[in-house]
Amino acid sequence: MRGYGNLIEGYRRFRAKQSGLLRRQWRQLAEAQSPRAVIIACCDSRADPATIFDADPGDIFVVRNVANLVPPFEPNGGRDGVSAAIEYGVTQLNVPEIVVIGHEKCGGISAVLTGRFRDARVGEGGFVGRWMSQIDDSAQAIAQKHGTSPKAHRLLEEAAIRQSMANLRTFPFVVEREQKRSLVVLGCHFSIREGELWVLEEAEGKFRPV
Ligand SMILES: [Zn+2]
């Protein structure tokens, strides 16, 4: 089959591995889903949450976008796919956790830090520039102090995770459940080179390896 790269070969391996037990699991999943967490992750092909968390189908409800950003609560904000997914996961699937996961060498973070797409036209990086302008303030503050060094990238990757967590807490249904302790909001950062996950300890404001 043409047009799928080698993805169809992967699909055939997936089908070949389906034993009776797996087929039964899929049939159960077809009835309903009850994921353990909503994950907000980057689109980056190297930072796949299902791989990092060794998750099975049905385990995690994943929203991916450039640089794992959550825009603030905007009831009249238009076609907001991120808010729709968060709303569905939290209020309809009643997940007990939301995890924002950023990662090393994030292209979106690099773009905003270096101003690469700041005035770009749509089709030439304009959509990325506009999307990433959400963290312009943090990017400028970090660039003033650290330029565009590897440290600046890491700091902005972490700042974006913190901002997404803060923005999650502008959603009334998130705050309500967090106060009732039926929902936990977590932030973490994945190092591609080391294959290592760092989690934000909010009390001390620092990321630490798990
Ligand atoms: Zn990324």
| SSE succession | HHEHEHEHHHHHEEE
Radius of gyration: 19 Å
Strand content: 15-25%
Question: Taking strands numbered 1, 2, ... along the chain, how are they ordered across the largest sheet?
Answer: 2-1-3-4-5-6
Mean pLDDT: 95
Which ligands appear in the coordinates?
zinc ion
Q: What's the total count of β strands? A: 6
Report, as a whole number of angstroms, the end-to-end distance.
Answer: 43 Å
State the helicity in percent bands: 40-55%
Architecture blueprint of SSEs:
Blueprint: H1 7-16, H2 20-31, E1 37-42, H3 49-52, E2 60-65, H4 81-92, E3 97-103, H5 107-114, H6 126-132, H7 136-146, H8 150-168, H9 172-179, E4 184-191, E5 196-201, E6 206-209
Parallel strand pairs: 1-2, 1-3, 3-4
Antiparallel strand pairs: 4-5, 5-6
The structure holds zinc ion (ZN).
Explain what this protein looks like in three dimensions.
The chain is of the alpha/beta class and 210 residues long. The protein has helices at 7-16, 20-31, 49-52, 81-92, 107-114, 126-132, 136-146, 150-168, 172-179; strands spanning 37-42, 60-65, 97-103, 184-191, 196-201, 206-209. It has a six-stranded mixed sheet. The longest helix is centred in the last third of the chain and has 19 residues, at 150-168. The protein starts with 6 loop residues before the first helix and ends with a strand. 30% of the residues are buried. It binds zinc ion. Residues 42, 44, 67, 103, 106-108 line the site of zinc ion.
